Amino acid sequence: MRMDPKKALILEAAKQTFSLFGFKGTTMGHIAKLAGVGKGTLYLYFTSKEELLHEIIRSLTDEMKQAADQALLQHGLSSFERIHAALYNILVFRKEHELLIRLFREEREFGNPVMKQALDLIEQEALSYIALHIERAVAGGTMKPCDPHITAFVLFKLYLALVHDWGLKHPPLDNEKISELLQLYVMNGLSAR
């Protein structure tokens, strides 16, 4: 179904103002002005900037899943390699998307509960998405039986630590090195046998 053009314009204006001023610094007036609509028209579509943010987060999670789907549809890769590529695409999307960068920074700096809830939703969507694909791999016999939700959580957090946290104090790791480390720590284990 096609979105109302005015609603799409308002959402795009909200993305831009949230990126420029952050959630806290954005007013409905800023959004209306950038969208070229009156505040009354804006309120016909969205009752608050929290509702606008929720709609934007929903669309961002859809975009993030599409980026991960590209990796999962690659042929000739093992289940682990496809899940690794999907995780990588999710984190690259998260790391490079201007609005998400701003929202993560704002949440970290100000502890804004609305931001925390929005960012938690993004993470939960990513975890559910990864868990679903782990379930499929287990059902297809290409992964050992495991709790897909715990496994998704561990993979996501380890991946996040290697992609983001490690790079805060060390040279960043490339995708190949991250894959090698995930293979060592998760897929093969640390046993010398």
From TrEMBL:
What are the UniProt keywords, alphabetically?
Answer: DNA-binding
The entry's DNA-binding region: 27-46
SUPFAM superfamilies linked: Homeodomain-like, Tetracyclin repressor-like, C-terminal domain
Question: InterPro entries recorded for this chain?
Answer: DNA-bd_HTH_TetR-type_CS (IPR023772), Homeodomain-like_sf (IPR009057), HTH-type_Tx_Regulator (IPR050624), HTH_TetR (IPR001647), Tet_transcr_reg_TetR-rel_C_sf (IPR036271)
Q: Which residues form a coiled coil?
A: none
Query: The HTH tetR-type domain covers which part of the protein?
Result: 4-64
The protein's name: TetR/AcrR family transcriptional regulator
The root-end lineage is: Bacteria, Bacillati, Bacillota, Bacilli, Bacillales
